[in-house]
């Protein structure tokens, strides 16, 4: 193959009349072909019409004489006016192999007017960026599997306007902001925050560094995040995620269908509210309205500062109070920010509804503890409504008592499995067994000081009254009681004589104060002593009379004997 040089004037003429039309093929990728059109003339400038000519096109990299990146030969038919058309890339060359964005390119045109391969150099000219390099640059950005990079300068460029409504994809370099989705008219410059992102349907991020995703979400605060449907993060550093979630205060967080309306408050769940500063509300319809308060569960309310309410409809109203359980008692009205001794600082609710609120446990700020249903106002350190059970795995279960802050001095509890008693000074002093029998290791002493008594009256006729009592042997009908033979009185009989010594319980059963009989027995003994003394006197008198009688008998006998001697003497005379 041979290349000849055409005369200078011929080349200039031919290059001047060549018209290059470079067209894109309506696809965002590197072009496969482009059109080349020219007019063929000979050295004298005469049109070469209706002739078969050969054209060779070469694309050089970097310079007119640079290395070849593309070469292609065409045999074309000129028209009557010498016009011919060539589709560059249609004769075996591959334009896709040309790296359009790597460097500048130059197109060399050669022609053989006889249609052979004896080409003459027509000339070389640079391919400008319109359309090839520009098209290649844009196409490269959207090439499959390659990164997409668009450069911009913050604060520069045109002001975004006229966006309108509908589906849009917007990269706004002036504010380094990004928008994608469906807008209903809020994606204009004035409603776009610096460095913000908004995606979805009707969502907007007007705060600096803010992000809004989903449907109708709004991130209006600086560094705010709104995700979901109708989520609203309107203050700086706020976060709203979910359906209708609202975070309207600084640093607040709302998750779900909830409201966080105070600084650094957190609301999570359904219809929860965190309106106290730095408060947390979690669950359904729970509210933390106190400063630094926490409400968790269903319908719980923590209104006291630093309070905690956990459970179902729990209420923590006092300062630094905690409530657990369900439907605790709420009849008090404490100051949520000021401590008082009567505040309920810990409660466990065991109610079943709004009209049946009650507590299983209540602790007052003064230290009093109430156990049992509705012991809501304990008056002692331990106030129990009901019974206590104390266990000790076979050992003596009970309660140690200490009045001197040193070693325990007393113990009340089980002596054995069948005996309960009082242990003091290293010994069991008193105990009762399961049959009701009592044992006393010591003396039973009752208070009896005259100074403690009034309306003091001496007994009358105690002996006669005691004499009307009847003692009995008997057995108890209750099989749980001691079934051995018993000794005692009948309460009804005692009541008829000594009513003050008989008590009747709520069930109508009667008991006898046997100790109360002792004074009557004493008086009876005294009466007996008096009678005994009288009898002794009478006996002495009787003995005297008997002695006198004997003496009289002897005297009488003596008299009678003397009278008989006299009679004998008289008769003898």
Automatic annotation (TrEMBL):
<dbReference type="Pfam" id="PF13884">
    <property type="entry name" value="Peptidase_S74"/>
</dbReference>
<dbReference type="GO" id="GO:0043565">
    <property type="term" value="F:sequence-specific DNA binding"/>
</dbReference>
<protein>
    <submittedName>
        <fullName>Head domain of trimeric autotransporter adhesin</fullName>
    </submittedName>
</protein>
<feature type="domain" description="Peptidase S74">
    <location>
        <begin position="448"/>
        <end position="542"/>
    </location>
</feature>
<dbReference type="InterPro" id="IPR036388">
    <property type="entry name" value="WH-like_DNA-bd_sf"/>
</dbReference>
<dbReference type="InterPro" id="IPR011049">
    <property type="entry name" value="Serralysin-like_metalloprot_C"/>
</dbReference>
<dbReference type="GO" id="GO:0045893">
    <property type="term" value="P:positive regulation of DNA-templated transcription"/>
</dbReference>
<dbReference type="InterPro" id="IPR051577">
    <property type="entry name" value="MRF-like"/>
</dbReference>
<dbReference type="InterPro" id="IPR030392">
    <property type="entry name" value="S74_ICA"/>
</dbReference>
<dbReference type="InterPro" id="IPR008640">
    <property type="entry name" value="Adhesin_Head_dom"/>
</dbReference>
<dbReference type="GO" id="GO:0019867">
    <property type="term" value="C:outer membrane"/>
</dbReference>
<dbReference type="GO" id="GO:0016540">
    <property type="term" value="P:protein autoprocessing"/>
</dbReference>
<dbReference type="GO" id="GO:0003700">
    <property type="term" value="F:DNA-binding transcription factor activity"/>
</dbReference>
<dbReference type="Pfam" id="PF05658">
    <property type="entry name" value="YadA_head"/>
</dbReference>
């Amino acid at each position: 193959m041979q290349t000849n040089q055409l005369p200078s004037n011929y080349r200039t003429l031919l290059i001047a009349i060549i018209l290059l039309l470079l067209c894109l093929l309506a696809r965002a990728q590197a072009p496969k072909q482009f059109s080349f059109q020219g007019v063929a003339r000979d050295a004298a400038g005469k049109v070469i019409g209706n002739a078969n000519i050969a054209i060779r096109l070469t694309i050089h990299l970097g310079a007119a004489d640079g290395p070849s990146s593309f070469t292609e030969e065409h045999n074309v038919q000129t028209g009557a006016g010498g016009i011919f058309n060539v589709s560059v890339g249609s004769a075996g060359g591959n334009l896709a192999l040309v790296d359009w964005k790597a460097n500048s390119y130059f197109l060399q045109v050669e022609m053989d007017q006889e249609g052979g391969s004896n080409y003459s150099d027509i000339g070389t000219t640079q391919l400008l960026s319109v359309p090839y390099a520009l098209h290649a640059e844009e196409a490269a950005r959207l090439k499959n599997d390659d990164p997409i990079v668009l450069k911009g300068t913050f604060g520069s460029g045109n002001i975004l306007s006229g966006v309108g409504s509908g589906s849009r994809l917007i990269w706004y370099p002036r504010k380094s902001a990004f928008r994608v989705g469906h807008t209903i008219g809020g994606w204009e410059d004035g409603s776009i925050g610096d460095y913000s992102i908004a995606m979805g349907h009707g969502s907007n991020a007007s705060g600096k560094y803010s992000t809004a995703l989903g449907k109708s979400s709004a991130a209006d605060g600086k560094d705010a995040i709104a995700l979901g449907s109708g989520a609203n993060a309107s203050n700086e550093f706020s976060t709203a995620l979910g359906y209708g979630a609202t975070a309207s205060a600084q640093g607040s967080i709302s998750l779900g269908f909830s409201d966080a309306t105070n600084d650094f408050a957190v609301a999570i769940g359904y219809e929860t509210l965190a309106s106290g500063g730095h408060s947390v509300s979690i669950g359904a319809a729970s509210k933390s309205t106190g400063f630094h308060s926490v409400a968790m569960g269903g319908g719980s309310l923590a209104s006291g500062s630093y309070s905690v309410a956990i459970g179902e409809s729990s209420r923590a109203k006092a300062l630094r109070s905690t409530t657990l359980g369900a439907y605790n008692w709420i009849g008090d009205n404490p100051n949520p920010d000021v401590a008082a001794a009567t505040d309920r600082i810990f409660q466990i609710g065991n109610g079943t509804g709004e009209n049946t609120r009650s507590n299983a446990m209540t602790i007052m700020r003064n230290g009093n503890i109430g156990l049992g249903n509705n012991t809501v106002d304990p008056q002692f350190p331990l106030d129990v409504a009901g019974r206590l059970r104390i266990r000790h795995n076979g050992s003596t279960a009970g309660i140690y008592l200490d009045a001197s802050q040193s070693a325990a001095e007393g113990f009340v509890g089980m002596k054995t499995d069948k005996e309960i008693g009082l242990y003091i000074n290293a010994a069991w002093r008193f105990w009762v067994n399961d049959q009701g029998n009592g044992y006393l290791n010591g003396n039973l002493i009752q208070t009896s000081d005259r100074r403690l008594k009034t309306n003091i009256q001496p007994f009358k006729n105690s002996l006669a009254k005691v004499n009307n009592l009847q003692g009995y042997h008997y057995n108890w009908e209750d099989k749980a009681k001691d079934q051995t033979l018993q000794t005692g009185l009948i309460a009804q009989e005692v009541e008829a004589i000594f009513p003050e010594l008989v008590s009747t319980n709520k069930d109508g059963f009667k008991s006898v104060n046997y100790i109360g009989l002792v004074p009557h027995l004493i008086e009876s003994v005294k009466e007996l002593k008096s009678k005994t003394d009288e009898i002794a006197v009478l006996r002495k008198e009787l003995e005297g009379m008997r002695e006198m009688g004997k003496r009289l008998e002897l005297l009488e006998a003596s008299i009678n004997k003397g009278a008989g001697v006299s009679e004998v003497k008289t008769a003898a005379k």
